[in-house]
Amino acid sequence: MTDPAEKPSHFIREKIAADLEAGKHSTIKTRFPPEPNGYLHIGHAKSICLNFGMALEFGGTCNLRYDDTNPVKEDQEYVDAIAEDVRWLGFDWPGEPCYASDYFENMYAFAVELIEKGLAYVCTLTPEEFKDYRGVPTRPGKESPHRNRPVAENLDLFSRMRGGEFPDGAYVLRAKIDMASPNLHLRDPAIYRIRHATHHRTGDAWCLYPIYDFAHCLEDALERVTHSLCTLEFEVHRPLYDWILQNVTLPKPLPEQTEFARLNITYTVMSKRKLLTLVQENHVSGWDDPRMPTLVGMRRRGFTPAAIRAFCERVGVTKFNSLTDYALLEFCVREDLNAVAERRMAVLNPLKIVIENYPEDDEETFEAVNNPEDESAGTRQVPFSRELYIEREDFMEDPPRKFFRLGPGREVRLRAACYITCTGVIKDADGNITELRCTFDPDSRGGGTPDGRKVKGTLHWVSARHAVPAEVRLYDRLFTEPEPDGIDGKDFREFLNPESLRTVTGYLEPSLAEFAPGAPVQFERIGYFTADPDTRPGAPVFNRTATLRDGWKGK
Hints:
Layout: H1 11-21, E1 29-32, H2 42-57, E2 61-66, H3 76-88, E3 98-99, H4 104-116, E4 120-123, H5 127-134, H6 151-163, E5 172-175, E6 190-194, E7 208-210, H7 212-222, E8 227-231, H8 238-246, E9 256-260, H9 272-280, H10 295-301, H11 305-315, H12 326-340, E10 342-344, E11 346-347, E12 350-355, E13 363-369, E14 379-385, E15 387-391, E16 411-414, E17 419-427, E18 433-440, E19 458-459, E20 462-463, E21 468-475, E22 501-508, E23 520-523, E24 527-531, E25 541-547
Parallel strand pairs: 1-2, 2-3, 8-9, 10-23, 12-18, 16-19, 21-25
Antiparallel strand pairs: 4-5, 5-6, 6-7, 11-22, 12-15, 13-14, 15-20, 16-17, 17-18, 21-22, 23-24, 24-25
Helix pairs in contact: 2-11, 7-8, 11-12
């Protein structure tokens, strides 16, 4: 059990601690209840970290439970991906995952109990009629003409609904609560509907499925969940959650729902429907596109579980909705990768250098540090030869006073190698610089000189003879607006960033060809990258995870 005093306090942590201290519960149990109708995104990560985190912190357990009550939108692909994402974030659950479908018989029995108590009835209103009868918060609704149908008739119809006698939409089972309630969720809500669709687990055994609001609270109770932690939009659903639990026969104590603010991040959309639209309309390459806020996309981009957990902890848990700057997420990623990612040299916009006083056929290696933050990471040998690549941006023909990189007559240090001085500039017929001529100081091998002189500029480089060409994908934010789906009268797709992906050919030091997919690296002076699953022997592919600092200016 983790000491809660070691972490920043929030109201849920305080509530659980108080419940345990008061003896309300001897142990706690939470659950993470995704619907298997899409891939998890960074917003779900906050819920995962909270539910699993609270259970770990207080010595309890957390179930992974799939709310699979809508077979039309669910798929085994999503089930598998959700489990993989939860484990990737660093969490696990006791035994096998739970499913709403595990309790279909129980839920049906609870619905029968409500009918027998006169608290539920079969209704034939169409969806349009249902909406009209329900009314608005400031005006009471109207009772359905079927509200006082006899119990025996309701039981018969409900049984026949299960038996498959009726088409989709012909009947629904509604709870009988209060058509005058200011809370629309208590105005005789639907709790069962007919849906002739094959379920990914139960096949065609059922054509009658519970509505989410009915199923969710019963699943919590059957699993003996103590603290049902939901996002803030479910606050208005809590009276219905409690009503259902209080009107069927269940063991005590009953679970208690507590709401917290969902995670909203700038330059993203969190709606599964909108994310699915991006995939279906080919605005992205799939759910795992590194520009997507999905966990599988972030994993492919190179975001680490530790960084995401740290981000969720920093965001905190509150009762009010807010918008978190995407830059905070990138900060957490940089902070983690700075400690764990090895350094390598890569040139993405190459300018060739010829060192005229270095023998043409010679080559040697220099020792370079793998990670200055981690001495145990050791060193590596980097090959050096007469012809090198440097970044084009590291040379100016007429540099300003505070430009400390290479220019005509200037001396700079090549990382871990030697000092060089630019002696000439080669241009093409159009006046474009195509090559630099330089000399090197043989006494500066390894990065120092006998006379102890220093230079202000240090450049990364790659030996042209040994360079490994690679596809380098430069990912940036997917949208140009901080709130792309919050601008009145505008479709979120209007704000897609046309520069969210640029692909270049980079030239890498040879050791980068050995990086396995998923391995992180810092390209020195450029940013953090990770080897993509598309990487093949002799054909590496790297994705930019984050720049070294937040220099993104938006539109």
